[in-house]
Amino acid sequence: MSLNRIFDIAGSAMSAQSIRLNTTASNIANADTASSSTDEVYRARKPVFAAIQQSVMETGFSTAFTDTPESQGVEVKGIVESDAPLNMRYQPDHPMADNDGYVMYPNVNVVEEMTDMLSASRSFQTNVDVMDAAKTMMQRILTLGQ
Amino acid sequence: MSISFDNALGIHEKALNFRVKRAEVLANNLANADTPGFKARDLDFKAALNSSLNQFSEPGAMAMAKTNSKHLTTNAESADSLLYRNPTQPSIDGNTVDTQQETAAYMKNAMDYQASFQFLNSKFKGLTRAIKGE
Question: Of B29, B42, B71, B100, which has the maximum CB count within 10 A?
Answer without folding.
Answer: B29
